[in-house]
Amino acid sequence: MNTFKGLLAATLLASAAAVAPAAAQDITLGFVTHAQGNPFIQQIIDGAQAAAKDLGVDLQVAQQPGSQAEGQLKLTQNFANAGAQGVATSIQGEGMTRGLNELVDAGVKIVQYNTLSTNINAPYVGEKSVESGRVLGKMIVEKLGGADAKGTVIVGICFPGIQVLENRSQGVQESLKAAPGLNVLGPFDVKVSEVENYNRWEQLYAANPETVAMVGLCAPDIASLGKLNAANGDKFVAGGYDLTEPNLKAIQDGHAFVSIGQSAFVQGYLPVALMVDAIKNDKPLEVGFYDAGAQIVTADTVDMGNGLPAISFEEAIKLAGDPAATAEYYKAWADKVKADPTAGMQPIAAEAE
């Protein structure tokens, strides 16, 4: 065994020794995110921190800007090397697969959230990505006039190659086919940073001023599209993802039409609950899919999914920027999760159905 492999094996064995049954106060978990500073990612972190508070465990958060598989894996390994019994991470590429599976084999509890690889031996918490795209595409078609709709529709993706985003694109385009008169362009790479994202959308619109709808697949898009639409006389229908304050404000002001939420609180809370349950009961985490639930929000209707109480658009905006109010809103849901975190697990393939 060479020196590097020997050190790695020793590290993994040390990590495995840390995952014996433990009381809540003895449990330390890591939580790793991409797109540092994005308000949607912060909503996920808020959910994870709410779970840690409810369950009485220590949660440490590490973030990286952008989307790099190597960086994401390194942050996850750092937590395991420091003795964390479990780590939740979004998956930013197949380059994370081998390293995460080694941690799983060593006994570290790993949960994927928001983005996944079906080659990693760990459960995943997220939306049904193709179906959410179908819902968004259907909403856009209906807003444009249904099957008789005509014109150019532009689709943008912030991280090309990330499977859940490609799945969303697939679903959107499936639904747009209900109107044969629509000419769909993209998905184009629109980047994730606020400035780059707006600039990319602005360039696409300048090149296609006849566009009747612009559809983003990532958290920053609606805010950018709302700003762009306002600057051009609100001439196109804007739709996309996530219930951040800037996105909801764009809808409230009439510059965007619809946002599909993917239950950020659930994507943070449930991975922590799953890891704590597995650690306390000294059991492995089964590979499977946990549907975080879809949310559909327009200026006229708010559907928060997951059997949550009905709320107004104004209340949705308040929740978007208030972690404490959000935790209270989800309390009944969280109580069910604490009673049985593993309820409702589906086969991993169900994510892309």
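Second entry:
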Amino acid sequence: MASTRGGHPVVIGVDSFGEMTLGPDGELLSQPQNIRELVAEGVLAEESGLDFFGLGEHHIAEMPLSAPDLVLAAIAARTSRIHLGSAVTVLSSDDPVRVFQRYATLDALSAGRAEVILGRGSSTESFPLFGFDLADYDRLFEEKLELFARLRTEEPVTWSGTTRAALPGLDVYPRTAGGALPTWVGVGGNPASVVRAARHRFSLMLAIIGGNPARFARLSALYRAATEQSGIAPLPIGVHSPGHVAASDEQAKEEYWPTYQTFMLDARRQRGFPEITRDYFEHEVEYGSLYVGSPETLARRIVKTMTALDANRFDLKYGMGPMPHAALMENLRLFGTEVAPRVREQLQQR
């Protein structure tokens, strides 16, 4: 019998941002080939027993994944069980009506397996690309999230705001198989965002990319309290964190560290992050939010995190910078066949 937590199934999945990867010759794949390899990764995720495969929207050369819903549709045509979704859709710089229509269409193509995770995004390249002002960052997200909540009812929508044209009681199609598109809001630590997700009856995805994950327990508790106060039945809570699995702890770290270091050095230059040392990396792997190691190590740490945060879902953000595609495929295989069964079994025993 499938394990559950808080009345919801335990879900173990993976996310990718579509980072450029290396071929067998050690050279970068072309962008078209890289996108095709994402389809192979999604198929392998299902074959390995994972529950969810997500793709995050980005618009840069290092992550040329500007239309993840199209890639997910290609995966849907080659799979039958795994759920497919965004991770995340940058709602602030998109049109909520079109987002709903695209993922409702994916829901039809996948026979009810589509999900969407809405967020502000960790990077802002989509704002100038689509003509949005970063000064409107908060207002764009808040208004569009409210509109998406109304679209999700699949009833005629009456809405007006300042970020797009009003909707005077219009129907939006297609309808979904289940009558309500499964929708999550990605939150990086803002309590107001947690309460807003509960108010709109969206599930909560905690995006934890550094530090001790237990510090997010206060947000889980706040979300539970907010849903209860609103008279809403308990909704799922998920965790999204980066990592990499290999046959041993040392192999996983040696495969992951070089590209992690390069990525963080670039982030330091662009965003003012502190210097990333090997000691910092080792500390994050042991105590923080980098899930890097053997199947046994990852399972133990994931169970600890899910228990601390009262979560029923964990999505590993795999890949970091230009890693070999073969290493990513082995990561997916091990995560699905070795890590996920351990996590489910250990959670069922608690």
